[in-house]
Structure formats: structure tokens, C-alpha cells
Amino acid sequence: MTNVHQGGRVALITGASRGIGAAVARLLASRGMRVVVNYRSSRGEADDVVASIRSAGGQAMAVQGDVRDGSAVLGMVGQVRSAMGEVEVLVHNALIPYAIKSFDEISWDELGGKLEQEMRAAFLLTKAVVPGMTTRGYGRIVYLGTVLSRQPREGMIALGTSKAALGQFAHFVAQEVGPHGITVNVVAPGPVDETVTTDAALDQEHKERQAAQTAMGRIASPDDVARAVAFYAGDDSGFITGTTAPVNGGLVMD
């Protein structure tokens, strides 16, 4: 068990057993943070991420928990507190399942269900970590959004709408917790290679088309997204809050 007075900041990354979450966990650990790899069902993959961090000299632990379950979230944060101390950095990356359907095909239960579960998870996690951050006078909260909140794509109405709601939620939370030294920001990638969302929504032909529409000539890797998250999770972003980082290689420009 890690002594709570030793090591770097404690960072909880949800959905960190693969893809973007795993890349974030490895990067934050390499920068000296003590990392908590949350997973819902992929215990083996989460253990692999922890092992890779430890083999590189970092500190990490895996914690199971469904981020949509209030008691599970409180239990997870309590487990982290006992082992490492208060969560100082929250990266909410866990993917809430959703239907890939057009507006014509989708039902309210599918659209509304995704919206409700997306916001429930963000709400529960934020509620669980903000008191500890407030006590310390320090906190970093980073939510994973999507470019689809600004640039609609066929079949992605459930994901785009729910992440747009998450973005507005982030603004309100940022406004309220700012005086306590807590920042709240969103990282909103375009398509990201080697992730469940992109693989489910885009075949190879669509990936190539997206790459061709991107100024950088390719779609993002999990590491591209992780670096933006790490900026918001660290001290260099201390006076930046309520913003969204568009990690899309120029697919969408303001």
C-alpha cells in the first residue's frame, strides 16, 4: 500500500483498461502521478496497464467500478483514498454504450438513455471527488468529449448530443468550483484510431476519408489525445478552466 504522503498527485482515470484511457494512465504515471486505472469488466487488461506502468517505474493500481452506479463510485473513491489519498486529478474517459442510428431509426429510450447515463456518470464522479479537492484547495477535472458535439455525423446523434450536454455541464461546474482551486475542462477528439467508438462507427474506407478531410492528414492516436489530457491534468494549465480542447488535427477549425 502506498503511503499517502509519498509520490505525486493521485489521478483517477475512468475506463482506463484500453484505448485513450490506458494511454492517459501511462502518460500521467510517466510524469510522476500515482495513477488509478478504473475498469468495469476488463480486469485482465487493467492489470496489464498497471503492470506496464510499474515496470516503467511508475505507481499504479487497478480499481473496479461501474461509473453509472452511485455506490460503486463512492466505494471506488473510498478505496483510492485508503490506498493513496484524495483524488486530485479526475479524468473521466469511460465510454457509456450508445446506439449508432439515424434520427429516423433511433428511439427516445436509446437517445434519452444515453443522455441520462452519460450525465449520471459525470455527475456521480464529480460529486465524489470535489469535496476532497475542495479541502486541499487543488483539483483537475478533465472530461472526454467529442468533435461530434460540433460536427454531426450520420448515426452519431446519441453520442454527439450527450457529449454536448457534458460540455455545458463542465462550464457550470467550472464556474462553481473555480474559487477552490479546481479547474474543469473537456478534451474533444475527432476520430481516434484503436478505440471502440471509432472502430464501431467507421470502417477503413471511412477512416481514410476522415483522414483526408483532416489538415494533419491522419486521424488521432490515443497518445495524441493523452497529451492534451495531460496538459489539463497538470500544473501548466492552472489558470485555464471551462474550455474545450479540439484534438482533431484540423478536421474542424474555429
TrEMBL record:
Domain of life: Bacteria
GO molecular function, one term: oxidoreductase activity
Keyword terms of this UniProt record: Oxidoreductase
Extent of the signal sequence: none
Keyword Ubl conjugation: no
Keyword Cell inner membrane on entry: no
Matching InterPro entries: NAD(P)-bd_dom_sf, SDR, SDR_fam
Protein family membership: Belongs to the short-chain dehydrogenases/reductases (SDR) family.
Listed name of the protein: 3-oxoacyl-[acyl-carrier protein] reductase
Species, as recorded: Actinoallomurus bryophytorum
